[in-house]
From TrEMBL:
Gene Ontology molecular functions: DNA binding
HTH hxlR-type domain mapped to chain residues: 10-108
Protein name: HTH hxlR-type domain-containing protein
Keywords linked to the UniProt accession: DNA-binding, Transcription, Transcription regulation
Record-linked InterPro entries: HTH_HxlR, WH-like_DNA-bd_sf, WH_DNA-bd_sf
One Pfam family from the record: HxlR
Database matches in Gene3D superfamilies: Winged helix-like DNA-binding domain superfamily/Winged helix DNA-binding domain
Length: 226
């Protein structure tokens, strides 16, 4: 079990005991993206020691938040994945990402970044109300790394899917430029002119990308809330 204990009979205190230890939320972030080998987790948690990762995973397993399982042949590798109870924390993680987004910039020198994390970041700002029925490809780059996603809109709201499929227009850009474009703080054309973004396929379709997210709306509402 976790060494963290708050002497209070409170559900929030119990939750904090489980996910409030250093690195634990980031382990859960990785597992929300899918099962991971120990080495994969360690590779995405820069600065965490193998011993501490083992300790945190053991505590999460004891709480039935994480379990060990094996990938089927030919992989035959042991991986860690969230249990049903563990996956139930995703709405809370989504809201923490939304809240933490206001503190994201400016980037801290030396911070690492994995394009795969964009899936959770975009999901946190995706609209939950009806949006245009369109599919836009998104290739997020970071140095030599990249990850592709499909942003799909419809009556259900916006969904973020891995991979780029059935998209007539695709935006390629680093994540900070993507956020500027979907938040309308920088126009698509200005980002292209600054060589911060490129579009393949339909430019008119990609211009609709901000309609699928609520980031621009939140920026407009924020000053009125002060």
């Amino acid at each position: 079990m976790s060494n963290l204990h708050y002497p209070q009979f409170c559900a929030l205190a119990r939750a904090a005991e489980i996910i409030g230890e250093r690195w634990t939320l980031l382990i859960i972030r990785e597992l929300l993206l899918g099962p991971k080998r120990f080495g994969d987790l360690l590779g995405h948690l820069d600065g965490m020691s193998p011993t501490l990762l083992t300790t945190r995973l053991t505590a999460l397993i004891e709480c039935n938040v994480v379990r060990r399982t094996a990938l089927p042949p030919p992989a035959n590798a042991q991986v860690y994945e969230l249990t049903e109870i563990g996956r139930e924390v995703q709405p809370a993680i989504r809201e923490l990402i939304r809240w933490g987004g206001r503190f994201l910039f400016p980037p801290v020198p030396g911070d690492t970044f994995e394009p795969d994390w964009v899936l959770l970041g975009l999901d946190a700002i995706a609209k939950r109300s009806p949006v245009p029925e369109i599919r836009i490809g998104l290739e997020v780059t970071h140095g030599k790394k990249s990850a592709g996603f499909t942003v799909a809109g419809g009556g259900f709201g916006t969904a973020i899917e891995r991979g780029i499929t059935d998209c007539k227009g695709t935006l390629e850009a680093p994540f900070d430029a993507v956020l500027q474009i979907v938040g309308t703080s920088v126009s698509l054309q200005d980002a292209i002119d600054a060589k911060r973004a490129s579009v393949s396929g339909s430019m008119a379709l990609v211009r609709k990308l901000p309609l699928l997210f609520d980031l621009a709306e939140r920026r407009r509402i924020a000053p009125a809330a002060n």
